[in-house]
Design brief:
The protein is an alpha+beta fold. Helix content is about 15%, strand content about 25%. The strands form 7 sheets. Strands 1, 12, 13, 14, 15, 16, 17, 18, 19 and 20 form a 10-stranded antiparallel beta sheet that branches. A 9-stranded parallel beta sheet has the order 28-27-26-25-24-32-31-30-29. It has a 6-stranded antiparallel beta sheet with strand order 4-3-5-10-7-8, with no helix packed on it. The relative contact order is 0.13.
């Protein structure tokens, strides 16, 4: 049980019986005529190598017939993983070409393709016809509609799907990939879904479910909620693009499960009546209750719907409910939790279900041995088990939207999640570029919310990690993101991780104030500096003035580096495990003792591969952190699971103590291969003592 490569006992619901063989292994679930299947598996593949290859991924004249795909690859996977994902090995930058086929669900029916991620820039063709592209970041899910006339005319006929994925940093094709101190992986890195679209009537796309009366910045009832607000998202397909069907856009006869309403052409030019949609709701597999409602902007909204036998979600008892919506022969089953985030008036501390909470945990990138950013279910389970062993009730999703399978597991484990958009190294110029950059930033934020809103674990929406918040002219961009998030979902906090701290000028747009700082690592300051930061927020003495008063404050990043193999040095010098433990221990002690600090997310859970060149890749005029800087290992890093089992993780025998030794950020309390450093057990003991959170083997996940 102490082997870090062996998952701890943990009850999960991802059993083979829970999912159809070709269905997505994450929520939601679909039924009836709402046919959905994965296109994952073996695809044909080609790669145009080179940063300066001259290939223009946006060339309007490019056709799939121009792209050679002589090889085979697996989807999902990362096209630039080398050396099993170990740091210090330069992965390729270029353009991946992917090709597969699928059968039409029925003659005359359109389909929708949902990519859980396609990184960085993505273009998609079906049967040689381009159906869309995506520029809003390579880590967020997006959907593209394929009209019936682009598909094989025969029901069950073969169709070719061709995907271009460009992982080169470029401000035009990949505006959200502004850089950042981590390796940005490319390719079709997560699952691809094929959704059948009904021939008549709207597609029941999703049901977004949030707890009622739970806006974080409003007066709230005591305790946990027992009712939910439901938004049924309806859409159709026209001309190869998504068309949300709103008032007066859908006509037809009245029938059970459908809509009754006027034709788009109403007599005398009068406004058409809003169509009425008929559907049923069933909680937790119980009795279906008939309901109806009208749509506004393609959404039917229901407020204050009671949940039978309602049970609250919390880290100690993560109860989860389900809601099945049936309409016109389609059904979608969503999973959600009943919890309420807020602020204690007396202390300005963050509350969960009306109780003051102390959040403790880590930042977590999506990097794993062998698979990089496309982990197996087993790898996800193992990291969840390690987080629970570490006493965590918090994970910050660095620095982009995360895999839905990961969010499912956090829901089940009772670990709160900060979900943020991709965008480290955002500039003032980016924030002032309303015609391009901010268009795609807001789209990315909206897509992130679309795909994560039902997850009980998500407590905050974030953006612009270490962005230019000390420049007042950047604040309107922060405000625009906050306004969008609050309008879509007022039940979560809005925030960003701010390394300008008391110089931050934009905190009026945050409902949670969060600081990044590394006392004892990047400076000689004592970790007691956190006390001063917390006081400044509470007293309104930052550059944002009184806009921080009454808002909760947390530590979004802090920590220190330690090379896993450097554990027996005679002195506790920098980069040794002794030094790392000492600095991190003081950070945690201060955060836990200070009643003005609502939480701490240490940087980082494990060591990870970096790319310090960022958007200037491939490090013009300098070697960078990825180009030949890796450790001297006792054996090459394993590139398959079989090699990892047979050889074990490699041990570093020599390393140059640079800014990022061996092309790796060594601030993890585990190494990249998930071997624990002394800081892991130390922090786990402090976290559990502060929260009373049991170890993984002492608790079970509760699913209603």
């Amino acid at each position: 049980a102490n082997d870090p490569m062996t998952p701890l006992p943990i009850l999960l619901i991802h059993s083979a019986a829970a999912w159809a063989p070709d269905a997505p292994r994450y929520w939601p679930k679909y039924g009836g005529s709402r046919q959905v299947r994965l296109l994952d598996g073996a695809w044909r593949y080609g790669f145009i190598d080179g940063w300066d290859s001259g290939f223009d991924s946006m060339n309007a004249s490019f056709r799939p017939s121009d792209g050679a795909t002589p090889n085979m690859t697996s989807v999902p996977s990362c096209m630039d993983v080398v050396a099993g994902g170990a740091g210090g090995y330069l992965g390729p930058r270029g353009v991946g070409l992917f090709r597969t086929s699928f059968r039409s669900p029925a003659a005359g029916s359109a389909v929708r393709l949902q990519f859980q991620s396609c990184s960085f820039y993505c273009r998609v063709w079906v049967n040689g016809r381009e159906v869309g592209d995506h520029l809003a970041g390579g880590y967020v899910a997006f959907a593209l509609d394929v009209p019936a006339d682009a598909l094989s005319p025969d029901g069950g006929g073969e169709n070719e799907l061709f995907v271009l994925a460009d992982n080169r940093f470029n401000a035009t094709t990949a505006p959200m990939h502004t850089g950042g101190d981590f390796w940005h992986y490319g390719g079709i890195t997560r699952s691809v879904e094929l959704h059948a679209v009904p021939e008549a009537g709207p597609l029941l796309w999703r049901a977004h479910v949030v707890p009622s009366s739970s806006a974080v910045e409003a007066e709230q009832p005591d305790g946990a909620p027992a009712a939910v607000d439901i938004s049924l998202v309806l859409s159709g397909v026209e001309g190869g693009r998504e068309e949300l069907k709103g008032q007066g856009e859908l006509g037809g006869k009245a029938e059970s499960g459908g809509a009754v309403g006027g034709s788009p052409r109403c007599g005398g030019g009068a406004a058409c009546p809003a169509p009425v949609y008929y559907f049923s709701l069933a909680f937790d597999g119980g009795e279906a209750v008939a309901r109806n409602g009208t749509a506004s902007g393609g959404t039917v909204r229901l407020e204050g719907v009671p949940v039978p036998d309602a049970k609250p979600w919390s880290p100690d008892a993560p109860h989860l409910h389900t809601l099945t919506v049936s309409m016109g022969g389609q059904s979608v089953t969503e999973r959600f939790g009943l919890r309420r985030f807020g602020v204690d008036k007396a202390t300005a501390r963050l509350t969960l279900n009306g109780e003051v909470a102390k959040l403790v945990g880590w930042n977590h990138h999506t990097q794993w041995p062998v698979t990089a950013a496309s982990p197996t279910d087993e790898q996800l389970d193992a990291d969840i088990a390690l987080l629970r062993k570490g006493g965590a009730n918090l994970v910050r999703g660095a620095h982009y939207p995360h895999d839905p399978r990961w969010l499912d597991r956090l829901d089940e484990a009772g670990i709160l999640f900060w979900s943020e958009t991709l965008g480290p190294a955002v500039s003032v110029a980016n924030t002032k570029d309303w015609a391009f950059f901010m268009v795609h930033q807001k789209r990315q934020l909206s897509e992130m919310i679309d795909n994560a809103i039902n997850h009980a674990a998500v407590f905050a929406w974030g953006w612009f990690n270490e962005g230019p918040s000390d420049h007042p002219e950047a604040c309107p961009a922060y405000g625009a993101c906050s306004a969008l998030a609050r309008a879509r979902d007022p039940t979560r906090f809005t925030t960003w991780a701010d390394d300008h701290k008391t110089s931050g000028a934009c905190y009026e747009h945050a409902s949670l104030v969060a600081f990044n700082d590394y006392p004892g690592w990047y400076s000689s300051k004592s970790p007691r500096v956190w006390d001063g930061f917390a006081a400044a927020v509470a007293e309104g003495t930052t550059a944002s003035g009184r806009h921080t008063v009454g808002k909760p404050m947390m530590i979004s990043e802090t920590g220190a580096g330690g090379v896993y193999e450097w554990g027996d040095n005679a002195t506790a010098s920098k980069w040794t495990l002794q030094y790392q433990s000492a600095v991190i221990g003081e950070d945690v002690d201060v955060a836990l003792a200070n009643d003005r600090i609502s939480g701490i997310s240490l940087w980082h859970f494990y060591d990870f591969k970096v790319d310090n060149c960022g958007s200037t890749w491939p490090c013009h005029g300098r070697p960078g952190q990825e180009n030949g800087t890796h450790c001297t290992y006792d054996h090459p890093p394993p590139t398959t699971f079989e090699e990892l089992r047979r050889l074990g993780p490699p041990n570093c025998t020599a390393i140059a103590p640079t800014f990022r030794p061996g092309g790796t950020n060594h601030k993890g309390v585990l190494d990249f291969w998930r071997r624990p450093k002394p800081a892991f057990a130390m922090v786990a003991a402090k976290y559990r003592a502060a929260t009373g959170r049991p170890t993984a083997s002492e608790s079970a996940i509760i699913v209603q």
